[in-house]
Specification:
mainly alpha; 4 helices; 120 residues
Length: 120
């Protein structure tokens, strides 16, 4: 009797298959591309307004220092540390969204009957 590689005796996979690894990698990459697109869009808008990197600096200051300690938005100085910290958080969130979206699409392909159950 031959057992399929990657399966334990209980039927659960003990490692990710190459397909699922590739799927999650593509999801993370798509999430990062989406996050970078939004970041570039706000960089362009901020540059056109005459203060590049203002939006990520403002959002980073609000996120890490708290909105109660935030002075009025016009008085927030542009801080490269806040831009970098917010950009890391922004990238991680979009990578997670991409991985979750990739998993959901994979699940929908494997279990198409669940879509029909929602109409009942």
């Amino acid at each position: 009797m031959n057992a399929r590689p990657g399966l334990t005796t209980s039927g659960q996979a003990d490692t990710l298959t190459p397909y699922s690894t590739r799927l999650y990698r593509e999801g993370v990459l798509c999430g990062l591309i989406g996050g970078a697109t939004i970041a570039i869009w706000f960089l362009i808008l901020d540059a056109l307004a005459g203060h590049p990197l203002y939006t990520p600096s403002l959002l980073g200051t609000a996120l890490f220092k708290g909105p109660l300690l935030l002075p009025s938005p016009q008085d927030v100085p542009i801080s490269l540390n806040m831009v970098l910290a917010f950009s890391c958080v922004h990238g991680l969130i979009f990578a997670a969204i991409g991985a979750i979206g990739s998993w959901l699409l994979s699940f929908a392909e494997r279990e198409p009957y669940l879509a029909r159950l929602s109409y009942l």
